Amino acid sequence: MNKFKRILTGLCAIVFCGTFTACSEKPHTTDGNLTVVATNFALYDFARTVCGDSCDVRMLISPGSESHDFEATLKDIALLAETDVFVYVGGESEEWVPDILEAAGASDVVQVRAIDLVETYVSAGTESGHEHSEGDGHHHETDEHIWTSIPNAITIMDAIQQGIQRVSEGFEFDWDGRNAYISELLDIDADIRRTVEASTQDTLIFADRFPFRYFTEEYGLNYCAAFDGCSSAVEPSLSTINTIIERVNGTGSSAVFTIEFSDRKTAEAVASETGCEILEFHSAHNVSKADFESGITYADIMRKNAENLKIALNVN
Ligand SMILES: [Zn+2]
First and final CA of the chain: distance in angstroms? Predict the structure, then answer.
């Protein structure tokens, strides 16, 4: 029995039974009472951008936490019981969503399931020769990291707006904020395309996990990664390290990437052997507590990724 099932089995006998009123029947106005909950950082950032100050937007995972280790608390369930719009990815690592909504008596809440909005890819695994073993963390059948493509991010923002409109007709979106944000994203998107166009290289080497399938597909890049999308097994084997070293030498890459919250073990082993630089590519799954408090955005993260992409692809 997984962690969520355990907590939910204990809860369902005592909480929120039979008290739910369907969201669409709630008389919501724009008096600031609308609550939007998003599971991960990227979705949270999109929701707060379209809402501006007109609703209460919350992120379900805690800043700084490993997003795949999320465990629902009683507080989370109480929050979901009061939620008007629930935004989630809907991938394999969020299979707990129906259970937690049921426990909160919120099964009929307006849901924005982002994975339904875009073309999806099957998780390709690694290209480094790393073999999966039984129980080495969840293996995604459908790669769920859809938000790492900027056009997908904009599609998700539009769907969040539609979700809000369903519960609050005439909701006053922060159009200026939303439009400025989207043009910021489109600038970064164009910058990435220029970089890819200008480079003679097209392969990104990740000495780490690889939650960027949608990014590389979007911009026509190849990749080589030490570990699968969100594998929790990131203890580097000699053969994994050697394969990455061979790819760095073979492509003449001047950099390898790590992702956020990485232990950097594989990257450091590769760097010490090849002299290549280690750069971060941030998936915006979650951010550190300090970054969260400083108000970092998905656009800030993608802009930094775009800068590091230039370095890795030797584009000035
Ligand atoms: Zn993931």
Answer: 52
Please tell me the distance between residue 94's alpha carbon and the centre of ligand 1 in angstroms.
10
pLDDT tens sequence across 128-140 = 433 333 344 445 4
CA of 68 to the centre of ligand 1 (A): 6
Using CA atoms, how far residue 103 sits from 51, 82, 84, 87, 144, in Å, is 27, 12, 16, 17, 24
- The rounded distance, in Å, linking the Cα atoms of 126 and 140 is 12
pLDDT at 232 (0 to 100): 72
Give the pLDDT of residue 9.
Answer: 39
SS3 249: helix
Q: How many whole angstroms from 147 Cα to the centroid of ligand 1?
A: 11
Domain assignments of the chain as residue spans, ordered by start: 34-177, 196-312
State the pTM of this model.
0.86
**How far apart, in whole angstroms, are the C-alpha atoms of residue 154 and residue 217?**
16
User: How far away, in angstroms, is 90 Cα from ligand 1 center?
Assistant: 11
Q: What is the pLDDT of residues 199-211, one digit of tens each?
A: 999 999 999 999 9
Q: Pick 252 or 23 by higher pLDDT.
A: 252
Ion ligand 1 contact residues with beta carbon within 5 A: 211, 230
CATH of 34-177 among 3.40.50.1820, 1.10.10.10, 3.40.50.1980, 3.40.525.10: 3.40.50.1980
Summarize the confidence of residues 58-68 as an average pLDDT: 92
Give the CATH number of domain 196-312; options: 3.40.50.1980, 3.10.180.10, 3.40.50.2300, 3.40.50.150.
3.40.50.1980
